[in-house]
Amino acid sequence: MTTTFSYEGKFSERSRETAVSHPRHATYDFAVAYPPPDVVPLDGLIEGLKKGLEREGHDLVYYTERNGNAALREFTAQKLADDRGITVTPEEVFMTAGSGEANYVLIHALSDPGDTVITEQFVYVGTLNQLKTHGINVVGTPIDDQGIQPEALDELIKDLTEQGKKPKFLYTIPEHQNPTGSTMPTERRVQILEICHRHELPIIEDDCYVDLRFDGEMQEAFASLDTTGMVMHVASYSKLLAPGLRLGYFVAPEEVTNRAIGFRSSGTANHFASLAVEGYLTEHLQDHKDDLSDSLGAKANAMVASLGENFGGTGATWGTPQGGCYLWLTMPEGTPMDKLVDEAFDAGVGYLPGSAFAPNGDGQNCARLCFAYETPEKNRDGITRLAEFLDGKGLMKAAPAD
Length: 402
Ligand SMILES: Cc1ncc(COP(=O)(O)O)c(C=O)c1O
What we know:
By secondary structure, this protein is an alpha/beta fold. It contains eleven helices and 15 strands.
């Protein structure tokens, strides 16, 4: 657009110039955050939408109830009870434009610029950006392959409090974490609840990937273990179905919800998409989860097997995910995975550097690999290509024997 008007001096203090990004896809695209495209139930969604439109299509002319479409909230409340042991009424479920909006409104209800918030040491970059843009001092707490380490969290809260930076809340992704793929066992969640309770630290639990399990047992939600109302539970239909639906939700104590919704960017969640989701999932939730887990399991296994073949004995380590979309690759210290992103892309492999997820910029030698998007064959071949690329850079030396 050609303009003659100058906005100089008119921008808000916290606005930042952000380039509109156009997704670029490498030949082997492990950089994305998409669920498996092969199981998106297009016919089922069309059928569900038709059913919903026949029932209440005339209501599209109105703005729906402020917390979203009633039928979808009813379905969601039942799903939360069945899957997560969280007992809420449909009135207490708040539908949002993806879980991204749910996180945004809760963050804004609970923190002011300059406040300190604790996240996992590596955390979903969307939430990290939301917090940073809001002027929050984001501090990562140490994690291992089972998520947050309770004792280290306790120490961190004490240290921050002593420094006059008492954290406002803990944001955590306990199930199939983004980016590391780890799941926190129930026992740790109980310990962390006790710690947070002692420090009066509320928890935002982001359960975005809970439906994407293909192995092992689902762990209990923080929100079902807690009996005091200190946990706000966020989840999404983006990963179970498709991000393009833009439907997520949260449940929180009424006093929090009533503050949070003041930060919404628009009136209500998408009514049209809600009809399709409710219409499809009321009849097909379990079938769909089964398809999803078959697809994800085959894709993850192919990637893990190829990592073993190509990276075994090099000193690299990687997780063995039981669900979700991601696998975390840690190369030996000093391997500049962050600096090699563009060259690896040109060589055919897309990934996100670990440092993009770290509040303090750590993780230069790490990479997040999405196993959910490509086929099992491409996952296998893409890892081989990545190994060849790193080998060409002299970065695939045999690890010294212990
Ligand atoms: C942990 C986590 N939370 C929230 C989101 C946002 O997803 P959506 O707004 O599509 O529900 C994502 C997307 O990748 C995510 O990984």
